Amino acid sequence: MVDYWNLPAELPLDPPTVRCTLADGPTVQAMNQAEAETIWTELTEAPEYRKAAAGLGPDEAIVDVGAHIGLAALSFARQSAGSRVLAFEPAPKTYGCLAANLAEHVPGGTAFNLALGAEPGTAALVFHPYIPSASSLFEDAEDNERNLAANLDNVDADDLTRKVVRQMFDVRQDVEVEVSTLSQVIREQGVERIGLLKVDVERGELDVLKGLDDAHWPMVRRVLLEVHDIEGRLAETVALLDRHGLRSEVSQYGVFAGGSVHLVLATRD
């Protein structure tokens, strides 16, 4: 296990995974225990996540795009037992944790080592091995700094914590990953209804939605997105959802106050 409070001046590029038990939750394989605990707290505290999965039926799929190590998928599956879970994560090592966690806790779920976007192909993923939830196909240093500063300020982080987090965040790798589209997945996997489409892909959310053909939008009942509001993307996302018959509620979890990250929960009337 990495001692995060006594880090060497130069961090190794391949930190070991850890097994950790989350508060009132499952024991999971994680890349970073502190990150996993933080994400689990958000999932259990933010009401949007409970509302998103409420009342889903066994004939409705849960599609998790940007699944990370699978914590949202696990949370949704606990709330909606019987729903088919399809979870997508492009970073190979993070995907390994996702696959292990689904196999242990959601045996009917399927993990895919894929990114989803507007067009199929390949793309360069900027992978942060110590903070893998920040990995992105759309790296933006200015947006990263804004959100990192906001998060640290909102939790009143001390100087040592700020130093450690920034040192970990600065470690990155460029990884070529495979990209598919939502509609391609729907066709290949025989998906007929999507009760919940959850998207958390660090500035790639619009590309994911653009990969859904017009013919497939009516099968989507709810969408939960983490949207980075840069260059008018929040308004553009809400407008796109509205055009396809989904009404949006926009909120911002407290730790993101002052940053660009917003939650959008969109529901079909």
From TrEMBL:
Methyltransferase FkbM domain location: 64-242
UniProt xrefs under Pfam families: Methyltransf_21
SUPFAM superfamilies assigned to the protein according to its UniProt record, in alphabetical order: S-adenosyl-L-methionine-dependent methyltransferases
Biological processes annotated in GO: methylation
Alphabetized InterPro entries for the sequence: FkbM_mtfrase, SAM-dependent_MTase, SAM-dependent_MTases_sf
Family matches, as Gene3D superfamilies: Vaccinia Virus protein VP39
GTP-binding as UniProt keyword: no
Keywords, sorted A to Z: Methyltransferase, Transferase
GO MF annotations in UniProt: methyltransferase activity
PANTHER family per UniProt: EXPRESSED PROTEIN (PTHR34203:SF13), METHYLTRANSFERASE, FKBM FAMILY PROTEIN (PTHR34203)
Protein name per its UniProtKB record: FkbM family methyltransferase
Organism name: Streptomyces kanamyceticus
